[in-house]
Amino acid sequence: MRFEGILFDFDGVLIESEYAGNRHLAELLTAAGHPTTPEDSMAQFMGLSGEDFCDAIRRWIGGPLPANFEAARAAEDARAMAEGVGAVEGAVAFVRSLPRDLPKAVVSSSHTAWIRRHLDHIGLGDAFGDHVYSGREHVAKGKPAPDLYWYGAKAIGVPIERCAILEDSPVGATGAVASGGYVIGVCAGTHCGIGHADRLRAIGVDAIAADFAAVATLVGL
To answer: What is the pLDDT of residue 23?
Structure first.
């Protein structure tokens, strides 16, 4: 192994939640009179959480959130929690192929309840132990700040410069690059269309992986 620890983003890296979530958001904003495509949504909002997410939407639509926004988003989250979201192709096999004693953590903008529900759903409920961390719950400043990566690295006991970080979103990649870890831009999810890898390269990721076979090679498996 080239690295002493691995930090995983979650949505779009381990589970296929990004395209469906951004499609729903685009439909919601469009219905409220603010034409938005799924590609617009991914470009503007992907990787953000909490007030940063809401502020980005307000800027995009030029005003307050639609009246039904919070209720509609809560209903969609509840549906996804009930039904479960599938894994990105190759993600489960990659995690299972790692040495059992390799320190690793999930560092995500999502709530830990969302992360753990879907780790269970894809069969990785035991893979990360207690090392599931949320930018909403564990640090004051979430992505694109680097704080969550530093938090995760400290929690698994590995200096950040000896960690590989797997990220798919420009927001996440920005924070990961600033953290000082080795950042792999993972473009394995269905939301990663033409030009996505170029956006991550422009942010300064260290490498691009089109699939988890490429991730495995980059980390030295």
So the answer is: 87
Average pLDDT taken over every residue of the chain: 94
Is the CB of residue 143 less than 8 Å from the CB of residue 172? Answer: yes
Q: What is the DSSP letter of 100?
A: T
- Amino acid code (one letter) for 219: V
Q: How many CA atoms lie within 13 A of 41 on its CB side?
A: 19
Query: Residue 220 burial by CB count (10 A; 0-12/13-18/19+): exposed, middle or buried?
Result: exposed
Alpha-carbon distances, residue 153 vs 21, 46, 131, 190, 208 (angstroms): 28, 23, 10, 28, 21
- CA 190 to chain CA centroid, nearest Å: 13
Contact 205, 173 (CB under 8 A): yes
Average pLDDT over residues 194-218: 96
Check if the beta carbon of residue 17 is closer than 8 Å to that of residue 43.
Answer: no
Categorize the per-residue pLDDT at 190 as very low, low, confident or very high, splitting at 50, 70 and 90: confident
**DSSP readout, 53-80?**
HHHHHHHHHTSSPPTTHHHHHHHHHHHH
CB neighbour list of residue 178: distance below 8 Å, 6 or more residues apart: 144, 145, 146
| Nearest alpha-carbon partner for 68 in 18, 27, 97 | 27
- CB–CB of 160/147 below 8 Å? no
